[in-house]
Sequence to fold (681 residues):
Amino acid sequence: MKKGVAGWAFLRIVLIILVLTAGGCKNPLHELVLEDVAPKFPSIVLKLGLNIIANAEGVCNFGEVEVGSAKEMEIIIENPGDADLTLTGDPLVSIEGNDAADFQVLKTPNANIAAGTNSTFTLSFNPSSEGEKSATATIKNNADAGAFSFSLSGTATAVPLPEIQVKMGSTSISAGGTYSAGSTAVTIPKDVAFVIENTGTANLNLTGSPKVSITGTDASMFTVLSQPASPVVPSGYESFTVRFNPVSTGEKSVTIGIDNNDPDESSFSFTLTGTATAAPEPEIQVKQGSYRIPEDIASYDFGDVSADGDGGTTSTVVTFTIENTGSADLTIGGVTLSSGDTDHFDLTDNTVSPISPGGSTTFTVRFDPLTTGSKSATVSIANNDSDENPYTYNISGTGITTAVPSNFQASQGTSTNYVVLSWDVVPEASLYYIYRNTVQAQPDTEHMTAADSPVNDTSCDPGVLYYYWIRAYGVNGYSDFSTAVSGYRKLEAPALPSASDGTSSDYITLTWNATTGATSYELYRSENDIAPTDSSTPTIVDISSPPYNDTSASPAVYYYYWVRARASSSDSTSDWSSSNDQGYRQLSAPVIYNYGSNSNAQAYLWWYEVEGATAYNIYRKQNSEADFSWLGYVNTTNYLDPVGEQADNWYYIIAIKGDPINPTFSSATSNTVYVYTDFGG
Fold:
């Protein structure tokens, strides 16, 4: 049989030796087996990842790799046989073919690979030129075929390179060329935009510092306003701006440099030129209407204006125009008033700056004199005209006025309905403006107007002190304000007060209707029905509001009451109420605090003195169901019953004698006491 064929046959030889013993007995059978074992062989399998590479037919494709770059592959050699796999080549992995130089073995496998194990080696594709590349890799070994080979392939692509392209607008700029930024006047900047394009296949790195440089004699007149970003990606662009700002006239030029990584234009530069012309000049001109100031008129006169200083219709407002007759922008730094009666003029600076050549702007001046007489001031205009800064001219006017109303008066509580305002009429006045406030500070707006004197202010609140000012208006405008006068509307007198009739032994309760505007009330109390006058002194003051309990009234006395209202703002009072009411405070009931009987079977009583009482009635009864009987009266606060009877029960009460309000004892009697009389008790 052939070696290496599966299903190797085994030859089995069995020798049976029968040894017969001398007695003719048979020995145990012995079997000898001779087994021919099968031969062992190595095997080789190559894998790229999980993919098996076929011998002589397999291909390892590296794909696209840039020239000068490298790509690696790791190949696995497995030995699935049952004997060691020996790699016999020198080198162990050889590469042959036209493009063999573009493929390298970076790592070699183990020369001996035991059965059931593996080893790896690494191949690299590192092309030196563009195009399709191929070679054959061979591994000699001790397996069946004796050599294992497979193909190598790859595509070498060109190395990406940047390519710089600079443009000014749509114009492409060549390295070393000359280009013009145009012309501009001295001190007037002109900006020129440039674009750096990358038409290559790799990033264009701008390597200079700064990225765009400016050199040359006139470099101080050119500035890179915005540096470009780096890198510039393939097919992308970045921009930068150069400002040409000449300080002198003539032709100017600089070199623009852009260092970069373009292999053949790494120092890209070009010449930029510009023409500087003479700087334009502004020229200021001021007009009022069609008149030039001061060429046509030396100054401006507002004429006669009412000296009321209120900014109203009697003041005069004039508009002035600032023109720029020059060839450059005219810058206005502000319009102000100076030197003179500036507080009589009001300037509104609404100018717009700068003013372009041939343009104009305006401002206004109001003449609103505060006092009479001639007034003047100077208008000053700050600007950039080289020989007229500041531009000044004079303004003037005369203040006239209407006479202030004299003898201005306000009534002091003469009416409960209004305040009467009166003054001496001003002949030239057609209307009077009256101002009102609750504090001595003149308000901004009038309270009322009147055509003549007097006039009643009916809208004022009762009891409130008001301050008034007046000014006249006529053909000469407004007069000055008068000095302040004060006045108030009188409080209404409260209605008839109501006084309680003995409802309390502690006080008399007074009630009345509250008065509008009152901050407190005053009471006048009398034992006779004679009404108080305005000069009468109140009995009770500073009562905040009704009702009020008069605790100072004496008991058992009839009193007459009048009430009036008071206002704190004007420190004024109303009239006393037109009628009165009578009331009284009830006497307190006596209180017996000691009682009993003596050895003569006489009852004795002691009680507290009652305010307002002059005598006390004594009452007695013998049982609780009987009526009390009067025993008499005493002027003291104790009593000894002269009639004693042995072993009797007695009840006693005390009442006030001579109470003019309640003469009977029933309404103000003492507590009832019980006394038991007994001789020797």
Observations:
- Residues 1-36 have pLDDT under 50 and may be disordered.
- The longest strand covers residues 147-157.
